[in-house]
């Protein structure tokens, strides 16, 4: 559709802006900086409250408009009005998970590079994605959409456990739990944000990984496979990642082939991807599929492992049909992130943090807990108390050092007083 008729400068519409957390603000800031470096004008949209809470994003953009991305039709209609007024956009992008459908709708309306809206809705709806992959011959755990505990019990009677209870559409491990006894299903359902619409699926046993990459000329290109470390069940909070994963050549090849084949099957063709999976003796079992870069500071790990890599500039240039860089990627270094997970209770004291954060191998550090705070049990990503991203000559060295540095941070926690009522 083109940009403002009075200018030949390509314009990027960045839908959703950033959430008011350091990870999201940092990623959006990097994306805007790389857009500017490639000569793009930038226009950020998002809810008014979110825009007001992220002033650095507003300052970095050329234009800002309050548009609710949770309503994809509203974003599409707004983009159409802008184009009718001669203020069109040449590419549409988002970093937030919940903005991906709005991006697809706007791109289709504008006639610019984008993923089909139906394909994005499919991967955003976990059971629909599972069903599509299973129908195409990919190994998938059995899954069912439920509206109450009785339906979950019926599933458990039909398919052997353990089982995983999870929201149909959420992120950050919110509401996800492992259930080994059908008698405990009701309790797990009660912890869900929406207990009247949720998924139950068979638990898959095996090491977990994710695959990071981009689409170039419509084809998925893998940057790296990332090893994932999770807290002990019943919850599935991620407490560490290592990149590259250090798989054997055979396992690396079958992971890459399965993921790229699945992305083609699902109809994705533009932007970035982050695909989660389990590696069992029998198969690569695909988990969630995301049409965006991964969270948990994986972007910082990629930038360290691939010196000079432009995560966002690469996508923007491809969307404009201008990408001239490599299409095969080999990591030159290794990186790891580890999260701080002190026990629950009242936090009295933190020791060793300043020394650890100052270590020369630390790429990024963040401490979100402070003395005096009450720490809850580790049930979702936001319950983590901080993190360290570490770089080294290879991934094994990065993971080892990250573990050592996290262990050097000492938390003194007083257990919560028992309820005497």
From TrEMBL:
Keywords: ATP-binding, Ligase, Nucleotide-binding
GO MF terms, alphabetically ordered: ATP binding; ligase activity; metal ion binding
Residue ranges annotated for the ATP-grasp domain, each copy included: 130-320
Cell division keyword on record: no
Name of protein: ATP-grasp domain-containing protein
């Amino acid at each position: 559709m083109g940009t403002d008729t009075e200018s030949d400068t390509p314009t990027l519409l960045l839908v959703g802006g950033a959430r008011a957390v350091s990870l999201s603000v940092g990623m959006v800031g990097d994306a805007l900086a790389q857009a500017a470096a490639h000569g793009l004008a930038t226009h950020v949209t998002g809810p008014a409250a979110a825009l007001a809470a992220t002033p650095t994003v507003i300052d970095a953009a050329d234009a800002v408009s309050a548009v609710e991305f949770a309503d994809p039709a509203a974003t599409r209609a707004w983009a159409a009005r802008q184009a009718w007024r001669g203020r069109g956009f040449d590419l549409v992008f988002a970093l937030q998970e919940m903005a991906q459908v709005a991006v697809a709708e706007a791109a289709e309306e504008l006639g610019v590079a984008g993923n089909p809206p139906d394909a994005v809705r499919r991967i955003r709806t976990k059971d629909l994605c599972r069903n599509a992959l299973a129908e195409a011959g990919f190994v998938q755990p059995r899954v069912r959409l439920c509206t109450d505990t009785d339906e979950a019990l019926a599933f458990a009677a039909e398919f052997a456990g353990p089982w995983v209870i999870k929201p149909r559409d959420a992120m950050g491990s919110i509401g996800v739990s492992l259930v080994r006894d059908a008698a405990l299903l009701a309790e797990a359902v009660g912890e869900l944000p929406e207990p009247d619409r949720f998924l139950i699926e068979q638990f898959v046993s095996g090491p977990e990984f994710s695959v990071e990459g981009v689409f170039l000329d419509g084809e998925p290109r893998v940057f790296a496979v990332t090893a994932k470390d999770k807290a002990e069940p019943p919850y599935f909070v991620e407490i560490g990642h290592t990149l590259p994963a250090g798989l054997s050549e055979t396992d690396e090849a079958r992971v890459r082939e399965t993921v790229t084949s699945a992305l083609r099957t699902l109809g994705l063709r533009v932007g970035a991807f982050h695909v989660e999976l389990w590696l069992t003796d029998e198969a690569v079992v695909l988990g969630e599929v995301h049409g965006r870069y991964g969270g948990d500071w994986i972007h910082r790990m990629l930038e360290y492992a691939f010196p000079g890599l432009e995560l966002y500039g690469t996508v923007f240039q491809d969307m404009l049909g201008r990408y001239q860089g490599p299409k095969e990627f080999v990591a030159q270094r290794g990186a790891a992130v580890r999260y701080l997970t002190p026990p629950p209770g009242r936090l009295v004291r933190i020791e060793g943090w300043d020394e650890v954060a100052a270590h020369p191998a630390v790429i990024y550090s963040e401490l979100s807990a402070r003395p005096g705070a009450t720490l809850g049990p580790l049930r979702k990503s936001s319950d983590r108390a901080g993190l360290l991203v570490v770089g080294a000559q290879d991934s094994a060295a990065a993971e080892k050092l990250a573990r050592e540095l996290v262990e050097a941070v000492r938390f003194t926690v007083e257990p919560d007083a028992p309820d005497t009522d």
